[in-house]
């Protein structure tokens, strides 16, 4: 009998047991490592992704009330042009519109702009027309000068003291931004930037009349971003931030598309995604992303609509490759990185920890992106013996305690992830077990999400971090994640990975708008990163949502979960409470 046949039989017997004992409880009581062993023995098989979702309704909108969305991580700031975490980004998108936004499928739609831009024949000049009579929440007019002010903060040499993660995307391409009249903005480029419209036209526009006299350096710590913005242009305006507890937003009556139906939107922090699921059941939360172990149970609750869809991102782990850090003595050899990745049984992990709501990944690009290469090479199948031989060949020998060492350095390191995310907390425990099986001492430790983000973007004090990334659009450019540009200026290249060939390919891929010319370059990039593994990709997970049925028109989708939510104005609660 094959292993798969045994797994199927085991699943049939165990499924009846799980109906009376929650999957999450099973993991909690057994412990992640033991539960993992049970899964790999064929006890539990994967769950099917569910459909559903709150679709548009003909119901008459109700004015008033509040919507409470749950989150397991507090925001870090309102840094509109420098957010590096999804919680902060979500609040920012609800407060500040950009020129464009995205629909659920990733298509561009106009927001502050009245239409998509007019583009010159040489593709070096983009002209946007703003909607008429735009206003800030304080009633002041929003004009092309605000757009110029915002973009100058990102790319201009005069504003280098202002830290923005987007500088790496525009610097060296964008030559000037000018306002030819109050409703017209002209972007001129020194060379083609292929993803300008897809990736660089959704930055929230900032108020020049409030921030224009502040020096670029002082803006980094300005109260507007660290405590809460005094004005906004989005569907909501800021009310208060009770740190560690909630962010409260309220309706912006000057919103260009018309005032929202909701009086308030509250982003409530809970301890973990299991608690989030429980509070969805009790009605303490209206919406949120529950733990995967609770998802099948939520589907049985008659007050909740559940939906799942592909996440246009991935879960991965970063190695600290900074030469001055001690961790580089272990991870500086790509053969060690390959051995560690080969030792992970990702197929079993996806079934055990994600309950089937994820698939193993091989490429740094998700399948939702047009440049995705399903045939990326090399790929890594689980092979414990091969992983051990690779470490043997690299000179890492097992000691009397079973742990490998080389040149006096033990193969011992800490693996961090964000606390409260139970899926990831379980993942690093399973990784610890599988790496121990090949003579590696990995110590899992969950830490506060904002601490984790700070380590990636500035301090670089970590050894290994497991985290996720959500692609903001369908364009495949990942300059800030994989290139040398992304190491500085608070970019996302926490690995400190630097490869001149990747830098050159990433830059070249942005100099043509012809996808047929760009795609081979991204194919090369995917293959190089698959070979060098500075940050191996583990899974493409699904987004899972629970939505109280009193909430109408909450039309979240793959590309507007953490990005702008252009449908938020139309959301209402049927009971008006």
Concise account of the structure shown:
By secondary structure, the protein is α+β, with helices and mostly antiparallel strands. It has 21 helices and 23 strands.
**What gyration radius follows from the Cα positions, in whole Å?**
24 Å
Tally of individual helices:
21
What is the CATH architecture descriptor of the domain at 313-541? Roll
The CATH topology of the domain at 313-541, please?
Dipeptide-binding Protein, domain 3
Q: What fraction of the residues are assigned to beta strands by DSSP? A: 15-25%
Helix content: 25-40%
Helix/strand-derived class? Answer: alpha+beta
- Report the principal-axis shape: globular
Mean pLDDT: 89
What is the straight-line distance between the termini?
58 Å
CATH class of the domain at 313-541: Alpha Beta
Question: What topology does this entry show?
Answer:
Blueprint: H1 3-20, H2 23-30, H3 32-40, E1 66-71, H4 86-95, E2 100-102, E3 108-110, E4 118-119, E5 125-129, H5 144-155, H6 167-170, E6 174-181, E7 184-189, H7 196-199, H8 208-211, H9 216-219, H10 223-226, E8 236-242, E9 246-251, E10 264-269, H11 273-282, E11 287-288, H12 292-298, E12 304-310, E13 313-319, H13 328-331, H14 334-342, H15 346-353, E14 358-360, H16 384-393, E15 397-398, E16 404-406, E17 409-410, E18 412-418, H17 422-436, E19 441-447, H18 449-459, E20 464-470, H19 479-482, H20 500-508, H21 515-532, E21 537-548, E22 551-552, E23 572-573
Parallel strand pairs: 1-10, 18-19, 18-20
Antiparallel strand pairs: 2-3, 4-5, 5-7, 6-7, 8-9, 9-10, 11-21, 12-21, 13-20, 13-21, 14-21, 15-16, 16-17, 22-23
Helix pairs in contact: 2-3, 3-15, 11-12, 14-16, 20-21
